[in-house]
Model the fold of this input.
Amino acid sequence: MALMCGIVGYVGSGPVSARPLQVVMEGLQRLEYRGYDSAGVAVITDTGLQMAKKAGKLVNLASRLQDSPLEPGTAAIGHTRWATHGGPTDGNAHPHVHGDLAVIHNGIVENFATLKAELMEAGDEFASETDTEVVAHLLDRAYQETGDLTEAMRQVVVCLDGTFTLLAVHASQPSVVVGARHDSPLVVGLGDGENFLGSDVVAFIAHTNRAMELGQDEIVTITPTSVDVTDFAGRPAQAREYIVDWDAKAAEKGGFRSFMDKEIADEPQAVADTLLGRTDMAGSLVLDEIRIEESVLRAVTKIVVVACGTAAYAGHVAKYAIEHWCRIPVEVELAHEFRYRDPVVDERTLVVAISQSGETMDTLMAVRYAREQGSATLSIVNTHGSTIPRESDAVLYTHAGPEIAVASTKAFLAQITAAYLLGLYLAQLRGTLFPDEVAAKLVELRAMPDKVQTVLDRSDRVKQIARWMADTPTVLFLGRHVGYPVAMEGALKLKELAYIHAEGFAAGELKHGPIALIEPGQPVFVVVPSPRGRHSLHSKVVSNIQEIRARGARTLVIAEDGDEAVVPFADQVFRIPQCPTLLAPLLAVVPLQIFACELAHAKGLDVDQPRNLAKSVTVE
Ligand code: AGP
Done:
């Protein structure tokens, strides 16, 4: 089993060269964030199939290749692995080989034990405990019968239960790479005299921005001059070509010490780009990707947001805005809970899936469940060509660009921005806001990128505080109204980046128990609503700050410019520009992201690839 992996395939024309291996290794480098506890490559050379694989980070494989290089070749496949079963060992690393065939795999073959038993019955022996090696045996057997790698793939995939992206090469077809996908990502990169495959476009973006998304249950055969796509029955399938709208540079660190630092710095652009091109000349919202009948949207009586982790907190922010603007009840459900609690959803429910990767299996399964119940489904996703948009009735892409760091930052702001657009679109459609009100809110939204930049420009002090607090054992986060999901997200960031126990609470919940946690010196972040909004909200949160300060808490307050009421009770005040109450999460979360990132750096941790985490959780 190998999950959330990096997968790269390459086939080029002309005599054998070092290019296939170079392209694959460079692609794996870019994909390493997706999973990193072992890595391997296979190359088809003039003398046949050659393979190298090593446990540990990609650098281990690179030095192995330095010590004993593989010969030049014409086709190559490569894989970085984040394992769940079958430890990260050389033997369990991919590719898995049988005869002259090599295969790499992302996902879980759930019936592999049965298949393995049948093969062992027939005398096959296995070198690893992985499901992928079973696929290698099956593919090689099928190849020996058919003499064709595509046909062999077709015969095998229909025997597999579970989720998989597979890439295979065979020494007898030196200019062919065959891929197949079921519930797991695979995209094609279209080159000149060469073609690419990858688990996402980051794998080949340095070589081409022409991509092709593959649909569910499709097989792709690439040669240097052709890309053929069929379904599992062998019928030709029509894959859609698109141009990737960011370049290789965007996927590099651009001089920052980590992808996370770069991605936080990119946040104004992520918000601005997500707003781009979504209003017409008259200033009305046009969300043409929303291919759901207006009559269906008008008839919606409930919205259910399904997401996980950070994306779920974006959903919570969306709830406040959409309920206020559209007067539709919005439930926010953790996708992995939603599907198993017999939720009440039907054709009058709009299910909104939020996902940066577009591959989170929990969220994908929730979307499938919702569609089975007859609900319209709309996804807010950052990764083009991913699975969740393909299985939704409509998609509202965020345009945050590639988010390489495992912990999500700029995508969170982009998700919130897209959710605001959705809310305003529904309010415009259903008439709960007048067109001039929608237009006015769009003006306020368009002012947000500059305000995010202002918060970034003020980040020195929060970085300094973070460095001082590097040894802190635990931090609490309080927020109210839209500040509550911000507090939850601030806690998650600190957990996943600095491995510090952190907990977010609704500020009003404090006196119902959590205040017992307050002791002298306990750091508490408090996200304060604008005093210009609902006054009672603001005054209640100021009282909360007083209560915890009286018990010795170190109060770290996020408050807007001009809010002097917090000063007497705050050890530190981090200022954010004034903005409408509902839009404040775009600003209030930024100091919390910076705090977590800086504290993790201060602890010498790998902020881009935190322990135990992977960028896209493509298993349930
Ligand atoms: C975010 O910092 C976390 N790494 C994680 O909670 C993530 O938000 C969650 O797994 C959902 O991922 P998705 O947005 O790609 O669906």
Summary: The CA atoms of residues 186 and 352 lie 24 Å apart. Residues 410-430 form the longest helix (21 residues). The first strand starts at residue 2 and ends at 12.
